[in-house]
Design goal:
The protein is an alpha+beta fold. The chain has helices at 2-20, 26-37, and strands at residues 49-51, 55-65, 68-79, 82-84, 88-96, 101-112, 117-129, 140-151, 156-166, 177-187. The strands form two sheets. It has an eight-stranded antiparallel β-barrel with strand order 2-3-5-6-7-8-9-10. Strands 1-4 form a two-stranded antiparallel sheet. A hairpin with a 4-residue loop joins strand 8 (140-151) and strand 9 (156-166). The longest helix is centred in the first third of the chain and has 19 residues, at 2-20.
Length: 191
């Protein structure tokens, strides 16, 4: 656990650099490109229903708004036991330390890099309530993320996730919010 704390604090220090980059829309574009170009199970195979192993995950995040660290966030997600082509449905909920809530449902596309490492891209529309946190301009937000993960055991995974949420310019005011997350996931295999 000490390793993950050191890793997390080291990465948080680099988040200022990431926040200075203009990533609006780039992660979402990477998600949709991966859906089309995934070597196995791309949309060229249509929406063939495939069995997948469901996953329940917990996320601890550093939150950035307007390139400044503004707090932390805790989230939970659940990926279902099937996919439609490369699109695996995912449900996600999160709460910041300033009581901003976000709940959404969308898709993840996981690409294995080798036996232990994977890359996952997500696109999740959802509902945002600011609470005492930052005003993002409206209630409908799109959350897109990229994760580099490692399978610790057959059933447990750990990942580093960067995500961006904004309205995609649906509202006149659209500042966006970013998180850098440590994600711990458990694959829910049938006994």
């Amino acid at each position: 656990m000490v390793f993950f704390f050191v890793l997390y604090t080291t990465i948080i220090s680099g988040m200022s650099w990431i926040g200075r980059q203009n990533l609006n829309g780039i992660i979402a574009a990477a998600f949709w490109t991966s859906v089309i170009l995934t070597p196995s199970g791309s949309l060229s195979d249509k929406f063939e229903i495939r069995e997948r192993i469901p996953q329940r995950s917990f996320h601890v995040s550093n939150v950035q708004f307007q390139k400044e660290d503004v707090g932390s966030e805790f989230g939970v997600s659940y990926s279902t036991g099937q996919s439609y082509g490369p699109l695996q449905p995912v449900f996600y909920a999160s709460l910041t330390d300033e009581k901003a809530a976000w709940v959404g449902a969308g898709f993840t596309n996981t690409v294995s890099m080798n036996e232990d490492w994977y890359l996952a891209l997500t696109f999740i529309p959802g509902v945002y309530h600011a609470g005492n946190d930052e005003d993002l301009g409206g209630w409908l937000m799109f959350r897109s993320g990229i994760e580099v993960g490692y399978s610790i055991t057959e059933d447990w995974q750990v990942g580093l996730v960067y995500d961006h949420r904004s309205s995609g310019d649906l509202w006149l005011y659209n500042p966006g919010m970013e998180t850098l997350q440590i994600k711990i996931g458990r694959l829910l295999r049938a006994n």
